[in-house]
Each structure stands twice: as C-alpha cells, then as structure tokens.
Amino acid sequence: MSAVDLDLLADYVGGALDGTPEHERVARLVADDPEWRSAAADLTTALALVDADLTALGAAPEPMPDDIAARFDALLASPEFTASRPVPPRPAVGERTLSRDVPGSRPARRGWRRWAAPVAVAAGVLALAGIVLPLGPLTTSREDMASGTAENAPAIAVAPDGGVPVTASGNDYRRQSLTSGNGMSQKSAPSSEPVRTFDGSEMAAATDLSRLSGSGDALTSCFAAIRTVLPGTIAGADFARFEGRPALIVMVDTATGGWWFVAGPQCGQPGPDELFRTPRN
What we know:
With 281 residues, the protein is an alpha/beta fold. 43% of the residues lie in helices and 13% in strands. The chain has 2 domains: 1-57, no CATH class; 117-281, no CATH class. The chain has helices at 3-14, 21-32, 34-59, 66-76, 105-128, 142-146, 175-179, 200-206, 210-213, 216-229; strands at 166-167, 172-173, 233-242, 245-254, 257-263, 274-279. Helix 1 packs across helix 3, helix 2 (21-32) packs across helix 3 and helix 5 packs across helix 8. It is globular, with a radius of gyration of 24 Å.
C-alpha cells in the first residue's frame, strides 16, 4: 500500500470519508483485499491506543512553570496595569443636547477607529511570520494564485521570502465541492444560506479563527501540525467556513499529489484539528 492509500484508509477508519464516494470504495477494498483489511484492523487498534493515551494525558493537570508565573505576576504589578483614571459621570438624559454635526459623520469615524487598530496589529503580526493576509474576499484557486493579468489578478499577496498565500474569503465550503474537485476555484458550494464574507473587524476580533488570524506564530504552528499528518508543502490557505463551521481551508502538495485539508479553530494546539481532507482532482 502506498502512503496515499494509508492516508485514505486512515480517513476511512476515522470517519472522515462518511458520506463521500471514497467511503464506499475503501469499504469494498477492506472487505475484499486482505492487505487493506489487515491495515484497517491495525489502524483501528492504534487509534484506540492513542485515544487512551490522550485521555490519560488530559486527566493530568499541567501546572504553569514557576518562572512563567513569576513573569506574569511582575507584568500585572507593572504601572501599565494600574487602575485607569475614573470616567466622568455621563449627563442625565434630560441634560443632553443635540449635536449639530452632520448625522452619522462622527459615529462612522469612531467605528473605523474601533476596528482599524486591531486589524493593523493582526496584519503586522502575520507579516513578521512571512505570511501576508489581505482583507476582503479573494479567489483562491491555485491557478489564480500563480497567474493572471493586471486587471483580473486576485488581490493576493505572497511574502518576499516565499511565504504561504493566505486569503480571507469567508466562504462556506461543503465536502461535496472539495471532493468533486471544484475546491476553492468554485469559491463556495451551493447552499440555501447566502455566502458570507469577512470584513476587517470580523477577521481581527469576533470569529473563532481570531487566534490564527491574529498571530503569525499560531498560523505557522497550524501549518506545521498539518504537515505532521499530511507531509508536503502548504500551497495556500483560506480563512473561511466548512459546512457552517469556522475553518481554515488549506491546499497541501505532497509527493503523490495534491490534497484539500480542512482545519478547525484549534489547529496547532497541538494537533491539526482536522475536520476533513480529500485528494485534489
């Protein structure tokens, strides 16, 4: 059996192929081929042992190292964390006066400041890690990443040192679209719900993916975790959703072919938080 066969069999044993055409094909191989049947039994046993080990590890609390705790104590006692000046009391309702400014002008500027700062911080962190994160819906097919004209080129940025192209489309992908080979070039699979796209404030704050979008180290750790279970080169990633759940849609190029890998918000802590994977056609 090849490495791709073993990956596919692991997906089958773990339930990742449920409801896909590959599930029936692998089930027939397990039933008819002694080599596949033996490998499936070994994987099932190994998964049970790993699950038992993880359960045992999770039951044992991990205390914070003394030196780290001391640094936190010193930080919280520093002047930066002293009590801020009291806020003046707000006037009573009857004492308010109407502003003669153009309606909506000042609130709009305040709204911009509220989300512009955290977005700038998040973009700076990712840039330091060699990953450039554009703000706005972008096309993410691999062909679009590699080619295009000045008029229709996607607004995608790659770090000068060859960093991974990362987009934030916010699209809701379905396993059928990835399995059928449409993938990111389709932008999103047909759905009864309207397609959502991230704006800057969502990318930096409110989503379950904010840990990955706000930290270059976290995103790098996520990619490293993905490579431990699917060795290869990360060719691109999209901050989006997978069947309604926040997810990072990743393209991985391996020695035997390309793969779609869908990672959840906990990717890199420490595993890849795998939601789904399938070969790219």
